[in-house]
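Q: For a teaching handout, I want to show students what a protein-ligand complex looks like in token form. Below are the inputs, and the small molecule is TAP. Please produce the holo structure.
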Amino acid sequence: MPGSHPFLSGGFAPAPESSDHVLLEKQYDLFIDGKWVKASSRFETTNPATSEVLAEVGLAGKKEVNLAVKAARKAFEGPWGKMTGAERGKYLFRIARLIQERAREFAIIETMDGGKPIRESRDVDIPLVAAHFFYHAGWADKLDYAFPGKKPKPLGVVGQVIPWNFPLLMAAWKIAPALACGNTVVLKPAETTPLTALKLAELFQDAGLPPGVVNIITGAGETGQALVEHPDVNKVAFTGSTAVGKNIRRAVAGTDKKFTLELGGKAANIVFEDAAINEAVEGIVNGIFFNQGHVCCAGSRLFVQESIAPQVIRKLQKRMETLVVGDPLDKNTDIGAINSAEQLERIKVLVDAGQKEGACMWQTEGKLPRKGNWFKPTLFTECAQSHRIVQEEVFGPVLAIQTFRTPKEAIEKANNTPYGLSGGVWSDKGAKVFKMTGALRAGVVWANTFNKFDPTSPFGGYKESGIGREGGVHGLAAYLDL
Ligand code: TAP
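A: Here is the structure, written as tokens, with TAP included.
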């Protein structure tokens, strides 16, 4: 319960999931051509739950981006490009097994650098990272079977830029299919969460991956831009905001670079009166509060059928009061720290706008820790379609609730957004579920569940949520010349 949690009284109790045995260096360099290369300058990465500096990491400029792309080209034209699929698969299997062996260390670092609850990094992120490498290891020698009648060839050097909400998982989503298909990689992690990608580089060394096959260059937006614009990059794979995605699309226009863009979302989670209400309430909570709502496919717009709205909202508020907000390293924590002070500010701006525009805000009780970045689980009722909290991605633990009377009205309201990444439908009637899933303009629609991921299943958006798919056979195709 929130009131009994040591964190909520303000002080930092010793974390039950101790971070003592996790070895972090004071400084990290860039991982280029299988070696650690000093950058001309550095920046700090902090723990968003304590505001303490965890390490200094290299800031890659144009010179280092160039070195990394050259190393990737050399590896593509050298050992990696000449290797059979079966041999590439062996490396990927080895990487997957090493991730499993070091799962605890990766989970703790992910939680310290990004703020997500250890229960999620331990039980969701890291197992999915291993699963992603295992899945793609299996494809490496079967590409001819995946695309019968074609002669699949790798694209070459792939530039990959990823966000901070699932740092290691996004790295795995990018690196595993690229390598399975025979490409080489230059990856730029997000500025606020570089550490697990750098640890992954250590693991690549342990796995004996040939130099230059994967290069990890840390830095800011300019580093990502230099990578995207580099003339010797054959494909750009980007996950991040729609605003930056649009810039990237402009940057690759007129070149022969291939690209995939996985962008923002504003998912509708639709609950019908015939749904199992208690399960739906759990699904709503998971949909919006998983990873503090820093989820591209978060169920941030809830549509409840009018007849059950008061009951659902009452149950939801009661359930929200049980959510433990606090120390991300504590296994009892449900909601960890907001990833950065900038992101916290963005959330506050949109929540203020929600109140000013006339929606009705409700938040859980309980105090937040004094140090670090925190936001209480929040919901809004009395929302209108035009409100900013309904239209814009908050990317935080904030739910906007609306009601509907008919399935037609639910579909119209759900599709009334520039985004189209995901959605959810809760109903006891199979026919209704299929009607809804067919009508929703979203890349992924869950039925009577939410936020379920699997490497076999393609993921990606419609409209301003992006172009291309990651995962499954569709995801492989995005890394091949067919
Ligand atoms: P962004 O600000 O777009 O940043 C994403 C990455 O791009 C970061 O590594 C960032 O570097 C880099 N970047 C910034 N400006 C760039 C530029 N001009 N050229 C090239 N790279 C640039 O997004 P974010 O705030 O990290 O992540 C949140 C967003 O990602 C949300 O909109 C969320 O919905 C979306 N997201 C989508 C998905 C899928 S699968 N669709 C999954 C996760 C997240 P810095 O970190 O240094 O700024």
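A: Two things your students might notice: Confidence is low (pLDDT under 50) at residues 1-16. The domain at 268-447 is CATH 3.40.309.10 (Aldehyde Dehydrogenase; Chain A, domain 2).
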